[in-house]
Automatic annotation (TrEMBL):
Family: Belongs to the ABC-2 integral membrane protein family.
Name of protein: Transport permease protein
Keyword Signal appears in the UniProt entry: no
Cellular compartments annotated: Cell membrane; Membrane
Residue spans crossing the bilayer: 9-33, 45-69, 100-118, 124-147, 159-188, 208-232
Membrane-protein topology: Multi-pass membrane protein
Annotated ranges, domain ABC transmembrane type-2: 9-238
Keywords (A to Z) from UniProt: Antibiotic resistance, Cell membrane, Membrane, Transmembrane, Transmembrane helix, Transport
Main location class: membrane
UniProt key word Ribonucleoprotein: no
Amino acid sequence: MRQSLRNPFWVVIGIVQPFLYLALFGPLLIPIVQSTPGFPPGDAWQVLVPALLIQLGLFGGLFVGFSILTEFKAGVVERMQVTPVSRVALLLGRALKETAVLLTQGVLLTVLAIPFGLRAPVGGVVVGLALVAVLGFAASSASYALALRVKTEEAFLPIVQSVFLPLLLLSGILLPMSIAPAWLFALSRVNPFVYVVDATRAVFVGDLFSATALVGIGVALVLAAASLLWGVRTFQRESA
């Protein structure tokens, strides 16, 4: 965290892409929401902003493995692994730092969305940001584990990109999957992130205890637990 605080510029850089979606795509979504049946409850900003927050968590978390690859080549990871430090701590220290950065970016993005017209209950915004934090933790842990397994940028980048694009398109981030054709909607149901996106949209309109919200929260927690387990085992295996 001290490293991040020394250069907070990267926190701002991280929200540039979501802000461009907010400024350049959001106004286009307003007439579509008003004229297209099947959209989730809420206005255009209650549909778009939660999705951008999830995109921020996914995009910011999945690519953090590049940092540990740099440290791996420099021998930093190897020196840390021969210390008596807990392997859980080695992973948590990194993943929680990335989660804190993503949460800060999420708060900034939510505040920037208010002048555009975002109106959401405070409780829903808090729960939505918590979902972003959990998802960011899961993505960061998985990214670190994958990076330690492949050990090279040449292998890491194609894998992440080939996984990220289908997850992005099938999660309903750009447009809700509720307006998709039946076959595409059915295909999206195998993507766990679509449930987190739907849950975030639900809490932004105040449906904190709806089935959609509870299922999405449960999926996010399961993803975080599975990613943490994978990451810890990978750190332990690399130390053996």
